Amino acid sequence: MKPLNITKLQICGLSQSILISRILQWIISFSLLLLAVILIVFLMKETFTLALLLFRSANPAQTYLLLEGIVNYFLYFEFIALIIKYFNSLYHFPLQYFVYIGITAIIRLIIVEHKDPFSVLIYAISILFMVLALYLANGKRLVE
Fold first, then answer.
1. List of E strands, 27-137
2. Cβ of 78: how many Cβ atoms within 10 Å?
């Protein structure tokens, strides 16, 4: 068995790399916490806006605003849940949460931009592909 030949330069370079990665991790974590606070403020603002829309007279334009607000509410909620999941899973963003956010964003787009039937069909096909991607990304189903 050969003894390990590690030089001081290699140890110094390794400790510098670890220090740099820890500093960058702290910056990312602080930035995500700041983003979470901003998203929570927007979530509260959206809650207040939804409450106001709910108690106004019901005309079709306000109904669409209410639906759009509800989907926006879920988008804020999903981004906050993604940040929570990032810290719970030891600084890792799970792919499935990004796909969930993408599906919700496309549903919002369908609610807001539903004038052209062909674009709605394309959005629906996009949602189908995202659901299939979720199914394939789930490793438990691939083993069966």
1. none
2. 19
